[in-house]
Write a structure and sequence with these properties.
alpha/beta; Glutaredoxin; two-stranded antiparallel ribbon; 6 helices; 8 strands; 32% helix; globular
């Protein structure tokens, strides 16, 4: 069994409430990027085998979150990402969660523990190949891509995605 799978199983068995008091609060902002570089290529399949290609989402604001089930802040921020996605339904906003280095069964086990099934696609990168392309140095890492396909904001570490400050940053990008 891979280390990440063992760690994920341990965290799921022990429950996140055991660790909640030991973890720092989730942050409430994303860091604006001065030089809005084009987002790297991202084309991965979701849990249902459907391909999602970031290039096909031009014209939309896209939140790309890189995470893993064994990562405590990743697990904690997932419900807030879902609340934001649900709140912005009907707008040109898309949330994508890219799981790094795990298989579909591990992710399904995690999802079954959530109060609600995420309303956004969970993409699979079981061999963690995308980390180099996107220069991911830690999990969770999040990028907010503007409607022109450029990285507008980024963050490393857990976020409370439905916090008014992050929602304000997203809505500013949604304005024409």
């Amino acid at each position: 069994m891979k280390f990440s799978s063992m760690m994920g199983a341990l965290l799921m068995t022990m429950g996140m409430t055991t660790f909640a008091a030991d973890l720092p609060a989730l942050s409430h902002s994303l860091t604006e990027q001065a030089a809005k570089a084009p987002a790297p290529v991202l084309a991965l399949k979701d849990l249902d085998g459907q391909l999602h290609d970031l290039a096909s989402l031009k014209g939309k604001v896209v939140l790309v979150n890189f995470w893993a089930t064994w990562c405590p802040p990743c697990r904690r921020e997932m419900p807030s990402m879902d609340r934001l996605a649900r709140k912005l339904a009907g707008t040109p906003f898309v949330a994508l969660a890219v799981d790094i280095g795990e298989d579909a069964d591990t992710i399904h086990t995690f999802i079954s523990q959530l109060d609600a099934t995420p309303s956004f696609p969970i993409l699979l990168d079981p061999h963690a190949r995308i980390m180099q392309t996107w220069k991911i140095s830690g999990l969770p890492t999040t990028y907010l891509i503007d409607s022109q396909g450029r990285i507008a904001y980024s963050a490393v570490g857990g976020r409370e995605f439905d916090h008014p400050e992050i929602e304000r940053q997203v809505r500013a990008l949604l304005k024409p």
